[in-house]
Amino acid sequence: MYILGDDINTDDIVPNSALTLRDTNEVAKHTLEFIDPQFVKNISKYNILIAGENFGTGSSREEAVNVFKDLGIKCVIARSFARIYFRNLINLGIPGIHLNWSPDYFSQDDKLEISLSEGVIFNITKDLKINFEKLPKFLTKILEEGGIINQLRKKLLN
Questions:
Q1: DSSP state of 21
Q2: β-sheet bridge partners, residue 158
Q3: Which of 31, 35, 90, 140 has the fewest CB atoms within 10 Å, i.e. the most exposed one?
Q4: What 3-state class would DSSP assign to 55?
Q5: Is 23 buried (19+), middle (13-18) or exposed (0-12) by CB count in 10 A?
Q6: What are the two backbone dihedrals, phi and then psi, of residue 48, each rounded to the nearest 5 degrees?
Q7: Locate the Aconitase A/isopropylmalate dehydratase small subunit swivel domain: which residues (predicted)?
Q8: pLDDT in tens, 45-71
Q9: Tens digit of pLDDT for each residue in 115-136?
């Protein structure tokens, strides 16, 4: 897992200069480059992001979620999310977990297991069980289907 700070907005996630690129893989190469220039280089060893307050504020651009999906992020845990960003995560199949976490819950490189159905994060490294409020069933269903587009495809094909 990788820990970010507070107030990470969509311009921080995907700089405006990267939005002119046509290839999504090229856009992803610029993820968080002004927060951590080594983020993309090092992200292959992480699949969970931990963030502070106000994660994903700013514009509602979907690219700010797509880049994390392209980079293999499986879950984002934050103290608070911008509402639209949170729904974009869910709609693209990435769980967003609201958790008022304490610094002693996580350290960079800790190994985590997450059960959305039970509302539990288990920090294997620290042998710590952390409960969180489970997502509503309709959001869990979207995640189970791999995102809103997959859910709609399945409904239309049945």
A1: -
A2: none
A3: 35
A4: strand
A5: exposed
A6: -130, 135
A7: 26-94
A8: 889 999 999 999 998 888 999 999 999
A9: 999 999 999 999 999 999 999 9
Cα angle 134, 137, 141 (rounded to 5 degrees) comes to 115
Report the percentage of the chain scoring pLDDT > 90.
Answer: 85
Tell me the HSE value of 43 on the side-chain side, using a 13 A CA sphere. 25
Q: How many domains does the chain have?
A: 1
What is the token pair recorded at 73?
Answer: 């992020």
Which CATH number goes with the domain that contains 7?
3.20.19.10
For every residue of 71-110, DSSP letters joined together read: TT--EEEES-B-HHHHHHHHHTT--EEE----TTT--TT-
Residue 75 near residue 114, CB atoms below 8 Å: yes
